[in-house]
Design goal:
There is one protein chain. The protein is mainly alpha-helical. It has 2 domains: about 5-70, Arc Repressor Mutant, subunit A; about 75-140, Orthogonal Bundle (Diphtheria Toxin Repressor, domain 2). The chain is built from 7 helices and 2 strands, in the order αααββαααα. The protein has helices spanning about 5-20, 25-30, 35-50, 65-85, 90-100, 105-120, 125-140; strands spanning about 50-55, 60. Strands 1-2 form a two-stranded antiparallel ribbon. It is elongated, with a radius of gyration of 18 Å. One of its GO terms (biological process) is intracellular manganese ion homeostasis. It is found in: Cytoplasm. This is HTH-type transcriptional regulator MntR.
Length: about 140
């Protein structure tokens, strides 16, 4: 299993490849706001763990294993953002909150959150009920 740091890189590399068709060290560094040398070290580590194939000066390609994990990590991130919206977290806080918790939840917890988000999407009246409870609690404070 990749470390949280490896997960951040795999998620970003997967997104870049989906958006642009490729991911260069400089693109990854810009996206993650780290030095290119840090990216090179991590890419070498990801290559060693068979998440991608890296050739110096030629670029990188995700392996089937890397694509599968990258896709799942993007799903996890998007799902947690959806969950935060459902429960009424302020939009400006969502990204930071998700970044803070995504590596600390089991895949079982992610699956249950997915079930809950799906439930609320299918039963929009329940979201209204949730907002009503939130409003009542805010009035009490």
């Amino acid at each position: 299993m990749p470390t949280p740091s490896m997960e951040d890189y795999l998620e970003r590399i997967y997104i870049l490849i989906e958006e642009k068709g490729y991911a260069r060290v400089s693109d990854i560094a810009d996206a993650l706001q780290v030095h290119p040398s840090s990216v090179t070290k991590m890419v070498q580590k990801l290559d060693l763990n068979e998440y991608l194939i890296y050739e110096k000066y030629r670029g990188l390609v995700l392996t089937a294993k890397g694509k599968k994990i990258g896709k799942r990590l993007v799903y996890r991130h998007e799902l947690l953002e959806d969950f935060m919206r459902v429960i009424g977290v302020d939009e400006k806080n969502i990204y930071g909150d998700v970044e803070g918790i995504e590596h600390h939840l089991s895949w079982d917890a992610i699956d249950r959150i997915g079930d809950l988000v799906q439930y609320f999407e299918e039963k929009s009246k329940r979201v209204d009920d949730l907002r009503s409870i939130e409003k009542q609690n805010n009035e009490i404070k």
